[in-house]
Amino acid sequence: MYERIKSLFDSARNRYILIGSIVFLALLSIGYIFYQPSGTDYHRAVDAVERAQEQQRESLELNRSIQRSIDRSADLSREAEARIDRSSQYNQQIGERIGQSQSGLSEARSYLERNAEIFRRAEEQNRAGQPHNQAATNAAQHIPGGGSGSDNWSGNSSMTER
Fold first, then answer.
1. Are 123 and 137 in contact (CB under 8 A)?
2. Is the pTM value of this prediction over 0.90?
3. Which of 84, 126, 133, 156 is the most core-located residue (most Cβ within 10 A)?
């Protein structure tokens, strides 16, 4: 094999062709190794970085939008809490007013019952003190033409509760 390679290098023309082809293959291999893959990788890397930057910008915009939504939601929650507190206070005030009204109604009812009892006693005393030949009059009867011009008598002298 050595002899064969040596015989190829004996002729100057063959020697230049062989050395030129070896150098050409070496340069082609070096160019492929250093230029082609790194150039393609560089473009791929640049494209990947640009895509990543674009996605990062979109992500930042989405995050800002979400943060604005969260802030708005927090504001609305605070407003709702304030409204609920006011509603609770109003309900408490209404409950107190209802209690006051009920106590006022109870007091008025007791006054009406006491007045009815007073009228009943006065009527009994009036009947007991009258002579036998006079007709008994009902103290709760309507007196026609009497009063201050207002005739709002209902004719029901019994006390009824609601």
1. no
2. no
3. 126
Tell which residue, 75, 156, 64, 149, has the closest CA to residue 116: 156
Higher-pLDDT residue of 108, 15? 108
The one-character DSSP state at 134 is: S
Q: Tokens 């206070």: give the residue.
A: 89
- Distance separating alpha carbons of residues 121 and 83, to the nearest angstrom: 56
* 119 in Cβ contact with 140 (< 8 Å): yes
- For 58-74, how does the pLDDT look when each residue is reduced to its tens digit (9 = 90+)? 999 999 999 999 999 99
The domain spans of the chain are 35-127
**Is the Cβ–Cβ distance between 18 and 5 less than 8 Å?**
no
- Residues counted in the chain: 162
pLDDT of residue 140: 57
Lookup result for tokens 């007013």: 97
| SS3 at position 77 | helix
- pLDDT band, very low/low/confident/very high, at 43 (cuts 50, 70, 90): confident
